[in-house]
Structures are given as structure tokens and as C-alpha cells.
Write a structure and sequence with these properties.
Helix content is 16%, strand content 54%. By secondary structure, it is α+β, with helices and mostly antiparallel strands. The chain is globular and about 35 Å long.
């Protein structure tokens, strides 16, 4: 997975910051949430859920959760990931905008 530096907007401090994938994961471990605003609607492989925003948070240890929104409405669906899953699932390169809250 690409660890390219990107610009993200920190909504708490109201500043733009340079981040990479590993830095975003560390921010989540430190208690922050990372949001990816996508450039297109995505759908899971089963066609069950579609979304255009991903909300990523750290649960505990090496566990993370992703929740979703579509057209401004937060969805009930979520998925859990361990740190090894993050290598393929947590992909800042697909976001047109990254927010840190």
C-alpha cells in the first residue's frame, strides 16, 4: 500500500497538515478519527452497501472500525479490521479529501 504524503484538514485545529498512511493510523491510535471523502460511490463485493464517505477509528490494541455515509446520511453498517487488514483496506489514495477530527 502506498505511503504517499497527502494534505488532510484537521477539523479540530482548523489547519491543513501533511500526513501519510502510517501517520493517519497513528493519529487514530492517539484518539482521532480519520474520514475519507471519496471521489465516487463505492459498493461492497456483495452489493449490500454503497458509500461515498468512510469514517475510520481505532477501537483498541490492533483493532480498527470503518463506518460509512452515503449522500450525507450516516449508514448503520460497519466493518472491523485488524492491523494486518489495514494494509489493504485503509487506502488514503482513493480519497479526494481527508479530514481528521
Amino acid at each position: 500500500m502506498d505511503n504517499t504524503v497527502r494534505i488532510a484538514h484537521d477539523t479540530v485545529k482548523n489547519v491543513d497538515v501533511e500526513v501519510d498512511r502510517d501517520g493517519l493510523i497513528q493519529l487514530m491510535r492517539d484518539g482521532r478519527q480519520v474520514d475519507f471523502v471519496l471521489d465516487a460511490v463505492r459498493t461492497d463485493e456483495d452489493g449490500y452497501v454503497s458509500w461515498d464517505v468512510e469514517f475510520w477509528s481505532h477501537l483498541s490494541g490492533n483493532k480498527f472500525i470503518r463506518t460509512y455515509a452515503l449522500k450525507g446520511q450516516t449508514l448503520r453498517e460497519y466493518t472491523h479490521f485488524n492491523i494486518y487488514d489495514m494494509a489493504t483496506e485503509f487506502d488514503p489514495s482513493r480519497a479526494k479529501e481527508i479530514r481528521i477530527s
